[in-house]
Amino acid sequence: MLIRLQKFLADSGIASRRKAEELIKEGKVKVNGATVTELGLKIDESKDVVLFNNKEVKKSEELEYLLLHKPKGYITTVKDQFGRKSILELIDTENRLFPVGRLDYDTSGLLIITNDGELTYKLTHPKHNVEKTYVALVRGIPSNDKLDKLKKGIKLEEFTTAPAKVKIIETKGPNAVLEIKIREGKNRQVRRMCEAIGHFVIELKRTAIGEIVLSNIKEGEYRSLSQKEIGYLKRI
Ligand code: URA
């Protein structure tokens, strides 16, 4: 069967489909010995030989879907220039897994990790704006007026946020714990939203992605997603 090269790369767990397109354009992929830089080539999985960074890419037999409770102090990319620890160090697997979306170095909470490039592509595409729930400990206690600004949408540097669901869950001395539900995922969005109303984020944790909840997984630990959860994500 003929399939597009970027889909083949995504299905084999190399990267999301979008990232696979970039890898092709960057000249990192060869088919039957020749470097391919144009998108659109279709390959026959049963006979064509695909190399990524000069290593043969095999179609992944087994798709793996994990839910990790990311601790603070880990990056969600494979490595960075500062030598910081990567969440992939926490996972014991033979497969080449990658996270669906990202969380900041200082943010903890729910992260889905998989080698299903199709699902990653879908879930990180702006049009599938699934609701994500965050719990933020902020300095001070925001007034209702300020919370209304977040609920309506607030101007950050380069864009105005869409309406959000925001409530105070509890107060802790002079500080407040907020629950914030957003469908977007711009860089450091929750921190920047809180700072825009004058409340610095002391701690931030993601507790849910749509119906998938972190529940009682300890920091640094992970579990497999259930068939029901995988089905739900695929239907989003
Ligand atoms: N918003 C943030 O500010 N940081 C994250 O890691 C996720 C959402």
Report the principal-axis shape.
elongated
User: CATH class of the largest domain, anyone?
Assistant: Alpha Beta
Strand content: 25-35%
End-to-end Cα distance: 27 Å
Q: In this structure, how is the largest beta sheet organized? A: 9 strands, mixed
| CATH architectural label of the largest domain | 2-Layer Sandwich
Q: How many extended strands? A: 15
Descriptors for this entry?
single chain, 236 residues, alpha+beta, Structural Genomics Hypothetical 15.5 Kd Protein In mrcA-pckA Intergenic Region, Chain A, Alpha-Beta Plaits, 3 domains, 4-stranded antiparallel sheet, 6 helices, 21% helix, binds uracil
Protein described:
Strand 5 (50-52) and strand 6 form a beta hairpin. This protein is an alpha+beta fold and 236 residues long. Helix 1 crosses helix 2. The protein has helices spanning 5-11, 17-25, 117-124, 144-152, 189-196, 227-235; strands at residues 2-4, 29-31, 34-35, 42-44, 50-52, 55-56, 65-70, 98-99, 107-114, 132-138, 165-172, 175-182, 201-209, 212-213, 222-224. Helices cover 21% and strands 29% of the residues. It contains 6 helices and 15 strands. The radius of gyration is 20 Å and the shape is elongated. Uracil binds next to helix 5. Uracil (URA) is lined by residues 103-104, 107, 188-191, 204.
